[in-house]
Design brief:
Two copies of one chain form a homodimer. Chain A contains eleven helices and 13 strands. Chain A is α/β, with parallel strands linked by helices.
Chain lengths: 341, 341
């Protein structure tokens, strides 16, 4: 049995879902993978809990109503820092779930650097640091002999990088196309059904699919960040967000919609890396795709990704739960695969 | 740079495609994975070539017309055996591509045992030995500290096991459904388009999709073998072929076809492991599926597989080239992932 110390930073929806998941999966991880997951510290911007050895356990982060909470824990301390937790514990896996800032990567990028410096593996659901400096973080991790798991930041429960790096090992990936943002795909699907943009957006917000400020999603930046991270990871490249040609789903020309309808094609917001012409191009583009395109039927909040290769043809992955539990499951997957490598 | 000695057994379509692929990919495998692939011996039932150290190379197995052949090689010897090659070489990866016999597993199962006993990793495109005794082979491999790569035998270029074991690590897979046989799916697709069974089969044979004797495919045994191997591998189980309820696509009741047409559903031959009721069931079943089923649009010779999980929802993979080159690429993938583990 291998003991896996875990420090979780960030206690929003995904962080809380991760705590629940660890509580639920601890026994099966012992049985199936020989891993004893020890959630040893949980932190947010105000403070955190740090369990003394042997005290980490299911009850400490459940309040009297069964909700995941840490303010009621006897181990809570305001102002507790990541540094304190890293110092107090034997190395393990640092799990980063704070809010994403794709411009600066902060504060997550600093937390991740701290953890790597102390010899911790890192698993993150946060796109910010990866958009800003994936190559640098990867280099630091390599130098320290630790791993960086980023499934949680690259479409989470939809496997993208695993497939590219593992299942397609040995192929040349010539093109990657992804429907990587549930909100914009939901809106486009509803528009295809005849609903106008504003109504579809309102619907999405009412259902909790779209955020109150949907700009990142509908302007294409979320898709751009994801295709950028996937591309940089697959090709060990260092493209920047400014090199991605970004379109959103705002102000769709009515003639494009009419054309789609006439030809029975679908308008999709596709994150794309394309090297088929020999000149690599990165874009988030509103694209008309035909019924034989493998992403044509990816509708609603669903996601999907297609890899075109030289030797295996094209391989498409679709599905994967788009909710905090799905994201938490992607974090756990990376932990298992990193520790069991 | 890691030197990877390779012995290939079996020189049919897949074996020849594998030789070509190694010749094509040697430089990129050095650059990207730090692996020097050394195809050191190639054998079939009549004999084989065994290259002296340093002599393995691209020209030795291409005849004057550029075809892959070994009878013209100066290193060819009739009656050369696997034993001889295993003795002569430092351990590496044994690649098994002889014809499949799912009843006895022979002769492949003996070759694989020989190779494992001598400390070689094994990568196989052959379902026979895996249907007959996957658990036993796995156990022998574990004991010797070597790996068994079976992607080539489980839908080849369509990633199935990778996704289940790696991308879905930590989830409980509750159901697996796959369209795993191109021939039967092609025939069903044509029948949906109004063509009768015999015409569709003839078409498939003319196009080289179906074999002259299509029994394994249309009676469901090929699908059964694949879902059996996938299930046994994912759950470390030891189900036998006799425990799989097997249906084929022969004698489809006309009323089933009429029903499919009326409801706009699709008749698909699904290989299925289902544990949702708590009582595991393995079957190859002609199934009516609705348009929202993720395999509904998998038509023609395409394949696809859907995993239903507890925490990540359902994840579907489709595509992957169904030809000898795709199968060879799956063998290469396993080699890379095994050696680079």
């Amino acid at each position: 049995m291998v003991l896996v110390n875990i420090i979780l930073m960030g206690f929003g929806n995904v962080g809380k879902a991760f705590v629940r998941l660890i509580y639920q999966k601890d026994k099966s991880c012992e049985r199936r993978y020989g891993l004893r997951l020890n959630l040893a510290a949980v932190l947010n911007s105000r403070g955190g809990v740090l369990f003394p050895e042997g005290a980490a356990g299911r009850n400490h982060l459940l309040d009297r109503n069964g909700a995941v909470d840490m303010r009621e824990s006897p181990f809570w301390k305001t102002g507790r820092s990541l540094e304190e937790a890293l110092e107090a514990l034997q190395t393990g896996v640092f799990v980063e779930c704070t809010p994403s800032d794709v411009k600066t990567g902060r504060p997550a990028i600093q937390f991740i650097r701290q953890a790597i410096d102390k010899g911790w593996h890192v698993v993150t659901a946060n796109k910010g640091p990866l958009v800003v400096d994936l190559a640098g973080l990867r280099q630091s991790a390599d130098k320290k002999g630790v791993s960086l798991g980023i499934s949680g930041a690259t479409a989470a429960a939809l496997p993208t990088l695993d497939v590219a790096l593992h299942s397609l090992a040995g192929t040349e990936i010539q093109c990657i196309e992804g429907i990587l943002n549930g909100t914009s795909n939901y809106i486009l699907t509803r528009m295809k059904e005849g609903v106008d943009y504003s109504t579809a957006l309102e619907e999405a917000q009412e259902k909790g699919i779209a955020e109150p400020d949907p700009a990142q999603d509908v302007e294409g930046w979320d898709t751009a960040a994801k295709i950028l991270i996937i591309t940089n990871s697959v090709f060990e490249a260092a493209y920047t967000l400014s090199q991605v040609h970004v379109e959103g789903i705002l102000n769709i020309p009515p003639e494009l919609q009419a054309e789609a309808r006439k030809k029975d094609e679908a308008l999709k917001l596709i994150g794309r890396f394309d090297n088929r012409s020999g000149v690599p191009r990165l874009e988030t583009k509103l694209s008309l795709i035909t019924p034989i395109h493998p992403l044509y039927h990816v509708d609603g909040t669903q996601k999907g990704i297609t890899f075109s290769t030289d030797t295996m043809g094209s391989v498409t992955v679709t599905g994967g739960k788009s909710d905090p539990r799905g994201a938490a499951a992607a974090l756990l997957k990376d932990i298992i695969n990193i520790v069991n490598r």
